[in-house]
What does this fold into?
Amino acid sequence: MTKTADILVIIVSYNFERWMEKCLGSLQQSAMPVDVVVIDNASQDNTTHRIRNEYPWVHLIANKDNLGFGKANNIGLSLALSLSYKAVFLLNQDAWIEADVIKLLHQISKANPTYGILSPLHLTGKGDKLDPGFAHYVEEASTGKGLIQTPFINAAIWYLPTEVVKAVGGFSPLFYHYGEDKDYVNRLHFHGYKEGYIDTKRGYH
It folds into this structure.
């Protein structure tokens, strides 16, 4: 993989086709240049074929087996550290973002180094309300405050500086799917970091 940007977007995929256009299309429109790696967990549809043929700018790692969310993300985190990226952006395959989200999170991260995880608001795919998994931990609606601390943000859309990854490590292999993000946040707190979201920017999940 050739590094061309400071941020590596990591997407773990499994039967990604139905969301591919919205997810990858939003990254093509990013106001801040990013590199993108898709780590595929042995999809049974045409995910890998389509990425190779329709998205040549995406680096594809095709696993022979379904490793689960955490282990697959760890492949991307290791890649980011080995190539000296400044940050990673974890994005679920069924999520997409506004064009200026990554750029703003990068700026806010540099100004607030005690925040280990940053995210935009998570709205539903229709954009009509907060995503249920996100709404449980945050305020009801956008208030224009900017950066707001919260006790937890689910790992659908995470901005992580690689210095934080070096301190906290990757996802625990004990969690195959679900729970790995809560474990990660607990370890993040142990290392003295906070997490927060920007209530003026939106992601969709």
Summary: The CA atoms of residues 6 and 85 lie 5 Å apart. The first strand starts at residue 7 and ends at 13. The chain has a mean pLDDT of 94. Strands lie at 7-13, 35-41, 59-63, 87-91, 96-97, 115-123, 147-150, 157-161, 194-204.
